[in-house]
Specification:
The chain is an alpha+beta fold. The chain is built from four helices and 30 strands. The radius of gyration is 30 Å and the shape is flat.
Length: 428
């Protein structure tokens, strides 16, 4: 009887271990917080990080965070390797203030936080470059085990805990012909429920020096070959920097002015549906833009490998041009894309996708369209990613297999002992 009880205890212990492992894989459980050393004197602390929600790739993120304390101000630094991009700390309808630096192939974000926020679970999203896929995960700072590493160093002005969010259809970068007029896309800004004004400035870069460029009729004339910038700025006094200044956000749009036309994209108007002097403005839209986020969401079930382009047509006076028939567009997609497999979609403002027949033309992807706006070039196909419930199913199956194996072993042993005893009795 004792042996039977011991075997049952061993079985239940094995099942308990499996269930604990399951809970760890699913990132569950409650965290108890002891008094944190970072709530003591001003200084710099190294704090272990508990990361959950990632089935793989955890080694691409910091295993510890740096927390700086200066009075009532806290700054938490967390980073990722070069295989990751566009890491975003989820903050509801707000945006957390941060600065960015790169070091030895890693990118580090320093977020401004309150002491209360430091003790919460912090939810992030990030973009995996190799998979062209967004991932979500959570980190928890193990504040009770933080270690003081030095004194706080004053590095000047730090962002406020929350900063304005600028909303615009403008891409990150454009290419346009020298002499063309660049119409500046409109923009709005918010800070939570607060609506903010957006100021716009422009400058030209030459020899490392910036020269202010006039804005006329909400447009910039690209008079020279080189690099132009349009800067959107929004600020608010609702939250203040560590120096007591209003919180602010800037969104920088780079425009490369080239001689002989854009290499990123070009068009042909063989049907004569555009006015003479119409030029093309092409933008490669990358992670960090709301347009890219929408495109990535649409591509989640279609393609891991895709690129997003913004295309607009403007008349010589800077006014928007709309074709009343088909033109031929050429987009310079990733050279690794097989031009025989490439698929093009036009994405409307509401996210609706329309597939467009396309083919390869040298380094370009060529197609006919009467649309402008957002285009997605992709190679169809998505990699299988095991969902978290899949790991749970596998683990439960393992528990059942272990339990069955233990049960069968017990039965076989007992039968063997019984047969042996019967044999001994027969001999006697």
């Amino acid at each position: 009887m004792v042996k039977k009880r011991n075997k049952l205890i061993a079985l239940f212990a094995a099942m308990l271990i499996c269930l604990i492992t399951l809970a760890a894989l699913m990132g569950g459980g409650l965290t108890a917080y002891a008094e944190s050393p970072v709530q003591g004197s001003d200084g710099v602390y190294s704090v272990p990080v508990n990361l959950s929600g990632l089935a793989m790739g955890a080694d691409n993120f910091s295993s510890s965070a740096t927390v700086e304390k200066s009075g009532e101000n806290y700054y938490m630094t967390f980073g990722h390797s070069s295989s990751i991009s566009d890491m975003v700390l989820e903050s509801g309808n707000m945006q957390t203030g941060y600065t960015v630096r790169t070091e030895n192939g890693w990118t580090y974000y320093t977020y401004t936080m309150s002491a209360e926020r430091l003790q919460r679970n912090l939810s992030f999203s990030a973009y995996i470059n190799a998979m062209s896929r967004d991932v979500s995960f959570t980190i928890t700072l193990n504040l009770a085990n933080g270690t003081r590493t030095g004194d706080y160093v004053d590095v000047g002005e730090r962002p406020a805990e929350y900063v304005p969010v600028i909303h615009t259809t403008a891409g990150n970068s454009y290419e346009a012909s020298r002499g063309s007029v660049f119409p500046i896309p409109s923009a709005t800004a918010t800070l939570g429920d607060e609506n903010l004004d957006v100021s716009i400035s422009a400058y030209y870069v030459q020899g490392g020096e910036q020269t202010e460029v006039p804005i006329a009729n909400n447009s910039v004339t690209l008079e020279n070959v080189g690099e132009y910038h349009v800067v959107y700025r929004a600020e608010s006094s609702t939250y203040l920097t560590n120096l007591g200044n209003p919180t602010y956000t800037e969104y920088d749009v780079a425009i490369t002015s080239v001689a002989g036309g854009s290499t990123l994209a070009k068009f042909e108007d063989t049907n004569g549906v555009l006015a003479e002097g119409t030029s093309l403005l092409a933008s490669r839209i990358t992670a960090g833009s709301s347009i890219f986020a929408t495109a990535a969401d649409k591509m989640a079930s279609i393609a891991d490998n895709f690129e997003v382009f913004g295309i607009s047509l403007v008349q010589s006076d800077g006014a928007e041009a709309t074709p009343d028939g088909n033109i031929t567009l050429y987009l310079q997609a990733d050279m690794t894309y097989d031009r025989n497999e490439v698929v093009v979609y036009h994405m409307a403002e509401d996210g609706t996708l329309t597939e467009i027949s396309a083919d390869g033309y040298g380094r370009y992807v060529r197609f006919d369209t009467s649309e402008t706006g957002t285009f997605i070039v992709c190679i169809p196909g998505v990699a299988f990613v095991m969902p978290m419930w899949g790991y749970a199913v596998i683990l439960v199956a393992c528990v059942l297999v272990v339990a069955a194996a233990v049960t069968v072993t017990v039965i076989l042993v007992r039968r063997k002992k019984k047969a042996k005893k019967l044999q001994e009795n027969a001999i006697e």
